[in-house]
Write a structure and sequence with these properties.
Length: 105
């Protein structure tokens, strides 16, 4: 069963990978797919959105007679990643609490 992921968490996942190193589109898609069931057709709109929002930049590098478009996280992207990380931890803690049956009554 494939689990849907929110666009905010998918953005954060991509930014998290890009915070370690730059990736070209296909390699980034392959890396995300190691963790999350996401199609290639889903990833490219995510990358375009991140770029249009100033969270990543791109540059081209030649490879076997063609250019590969690489994605690099920006400072704004790093700040967004920190925000997403805080939101994720709060959400995860809340769900963990509910799954354990812990209640504050």
């Amino acid at each position: 069963m494939a689990v849907q992921i929110s666009s905010r968490l998918l953005d954060g996942s991509v930014l998290g990978l890009l915070s370690v190193k730059d990736y070209y589109g296909y390699a980034l898609t392959q890396e995300v797919q190691k963790y999350i069931a996401v199609s290639e057709s889903t990833m490219y709109p995510v990358l375009r959105r991140l770029k249009s929002n100033g969270l990543v930049t791109t540059y081209d590098e030649p490879y076997q007679g063609r250019n590969r478009r690489y994605y690099r996280i920006t400072n704004l992207g790093l700040n967004s990643l920190k925000s997403i990380d805080v939101e994720w931890k709060q959400f995860k803690n809340a769900v963990d609490t509910m799954l354990k049956g812990d209640r504050h009554e």
